[in-house]
Amino acid sequence: MTMDVDPEEEEGILDAFPNIGDDATGEQIQVVESTEEWTQLRDDMAVEMFEEWREIRGMAGA
């Protein structure tokens, strides 16, 4: 028995997720704002990643 169509390929990517359209209950998010803590965490992580990248390439302290 051969399989001409793979059912996994035929399933659309969105079919794997539940429908949350008009059926969603509760309040909807209207505005998203970052906090100073998040901004600092993100900036610290970016600096750390950049410094590691420079170290790997022998550019640290240049």
How would you describe this protein?
This protein has 62 residues and is mainly α. The protein is built from two helices and no strands. It has a domain at 32-62. The protein has helices at residues 7-10, 36-56.
Distinctive features:
single chain, 62 residues
* Strand composition percent: under 5%
| Main beta sheet strand tally, sense and closure | none
End-to-end distance: 65 Å
Report the mean per-residue pLDDT as an integer: 80
User: pLDDT below 50 for ≥5 consecutive residues: which ranges?
Assistant: none
Topology overview:
Blueprint: H1 7-10, H2 36-56
Region (Disordered): 1-24
Biased composition (Acidic residues): 1-13
Précis, in short:
The chain has 62 residues and is mostly helical. It is 40% helix and 0% strand. It has a domain at 32-62.
